[in-house]
Design brief:
Number of domains of chain B: 2
Strand content of chain B: under 5%
Number of helices of chain A: 8
Number of strands of chain A: 10
Largest sheet of chain B: 2 strands, antiparallel
Radius of gyration of chain B: 23 Å
Shape of chain A: globular
Shape of chain B: elongated
Number of strands of chain B: 2
Structural class of chain B: mainly alpha
Number of helices of chain B: 8
Oligomer: heterodimer
CATH superfamily of chain A: P-loop containing nucleotide triphosphate hydrolases
Radius of gyration of chain A: 18 Å
Order of helices and strands of chain A: EEEHEEHEHHHEHEHEEH
Helix content of chain B: 55-70%
CATH class of chain A: Alpha Beta
Strand content of chain A: 15-25%
Order of helices and strands of chain B: HHHEEHHHHH
Distance between the termini of chain B: 42 Å
Distance between the termini of chain A: 31 Å
Strand order of the largest sheet of chain B: 1-2
CATH architecture of chain A: 3-Layer(aba) Sandwich
CATH topology of chain A: Rossmann fold
């Protein structure tokens, strides 16, 4: 694949097969995808099409059985477990439907945790965590515990944790979960803003309305990318309807 | 909806002449429904004929404003009070197209579904981008119009997903069924998906 020098995420002919022989399940079959800074790519497809597998491979949570995954030019296959864990903590943010907030830590501590695990001093980690909480609109709730926050606020904390520090790649799996449509939209708004500020993102969703926030939508079926939406025109073109 | 009721609603705010009406109409629909000035004047003359608006004396600049009459107000109130019937809307060309695709030899229905999904998804992206760019409080009417189009596009994608799932679930089970009578637009009929599968 050419022209991917500035790619934040690059999948090159990635395969992921579970099991062997006749019982083998081919979750992904030769998927190639490039995501650049400032770009949000939505992945859509029916259940079992390989969406979540793609996201796990992109985030280094799983390894491909063929092909290569690169994050900021770094082939993940060349990293040992420790190197991979470090890259995940420093460069990749995850937003899942299950928030995985630690109930015994305050919102601020939850957000600061990945930085502290990575050796950042407690003081600096908390300062960065406060910046991230401010970005998601919760500067005053840092000392609350997860069970003292609403579902929407908890989701915002989880997003702050995904965005804290210098994360360049944000991976989201159905990030609006069970939130009502207004709160869910606010979550996507935050994600979009971070992407516009120069991060790259992959959003796995089965909700067309959420995928609408992406710059590009790719369609997975049976582990193969079958289609991509055409690039968007300028806002002027949208208004005049000259493209249709 | 009719342009007619749109113009009556605008005149309820106060008297306006043709170009003002056109600008106000486009502003309140966020330019999603462009009107040409000819449509405005044609509609105004019909409203005048029906006694729902009346022309006022020309201004010095040569513009003739219109005002709403009591009969016009009553018509407008009735319009707001009456839900829009689904049967008044145009038939869904897409549903008819898919139904025909299923019964037309040599058409790959899955490709038809995917091409439509991709196009609708792209429209949804465009609408979302327009919405993202309109955050001012005065943009609210436009945002709601955009939301309406967003939800319609979303419903279409969900329906296409549903069609595809039906196609996948109903694997080849025998020869294709006979073609349904023309004009039957029930594209969700699983038996027909099965028929398409059988031909593949």
């Amino acid at each position: 694949m050419s022209g991917a020098d500035d790619a934040v995420l690059e999948l090159r002919a990635v395969h992921r097969t579970h099991g062997t022989g006749p019982a083998a399940v081919h979750a992904l079959r030769g998927v190639s995808l490039v995501v650049r800074p400032g770009e949000l790519v939505a992945v859509m497809g029916p259940s079992g099409s390989g969406k979540s597998t793609l996201l796990a491979l992109a985030g280094g949570l799983d390894r491909p059985t063929g092909g290569e995954v690169r994050v900021e030019g770094q082939p993940l296959g060349a990293l040992d477990r420790r190197g991979l864990a470090q890259l995940r903590r420093r460069r990749i943010g995850y937003i899942f439907q299950q928030l995985n907030l630690l109930g015994s830590l305050s919102a601020l501590e939850n957000v600061a945790l990945p930085l502290e695990l990575d050796g950042t001093s407690g003081r600096r980690a908390r300062a960065l965590a406060m910046t991230a909480l401010t970005e998601v609109g919760l500067p005053a709730l840092g000392d609350r515990f997860p069970d003292q926050l609403s579902g929407g606020q908890q989701q915002r904390v989880a997003i702050a944790r995904a965005l804290v520090g210098e994360r360049r790649l944000v991976l989201a799996d159905e990030p609006t979960g069970a939130l009502d449509s207004q709160t869910g939209e606010a979550v996507l708004h935050l994600l979009r803003r971070r992407i516009d500020a120069g991060a790259a993102g992959v959003l796995v969703t089965h909700e067309a309305r959420h995928a609408g926030w992406a710059d590009r939508v790719v369609f997975l079926r049976d582990g193969v990318l079958v289609d991509t939406t055409a690039p968007l025109g300028s806002v002027e073109q949208l208004l005049s309807g000259s493209e249709r | 909806m009719s342009i007619r009721h749109g113009l009556l609603a605008l005149l309820e705010r106060g008297q306006m002449y043709g170009y003002q009406l056109r600008a106000a109409f486009e502003e309140s629909t966020g330019s999603t429904w462009p009107l040409n000035i000819g449509q405005v004047y044609t509609t105004l003359s019909r409203l005048e004929r029906d006694g729902l608006v009346r022309p006022l004396p020309e201004s010095e600049a040569g513009q003739r404003p219109y005002e709403i009459t009591d009969a016009g107000r009553a018509d407008l109130a009735l319009w707001f009070a009456t839900p829009i019937s689904r049967t008044d809307r145009p038939r869904d060309e897409l549903a008819i197209k898919l139904a025909l695709a299923l019964t037309t030899p040599g058409v790959d229905v899955r490709s038809v579904v995917q091409a439509q999904r991709s196009a609708t998804m792209r429209a949804l992206q465009e609408l979302t981008r327009l919405k993202y760019g309109s955050n001012r409080p005065e943009d609210l009417p436009w945002r709601l119009v955009l939301d309406s189009m967003v939800f319609q596009a979303e419903a279409e994608v969900r329906w296409l997903d549903h069609c595809e799932t039906s196609l996948v679930r109903h694997q080849p089970s025998g020869p294709a069924p006979p073609a349904p009578p023309p004009g039957d637009a029930d594209a969700r009929d699983a038996a027909r998906w099965a028929g398409e599968e059988a031909r593949r």
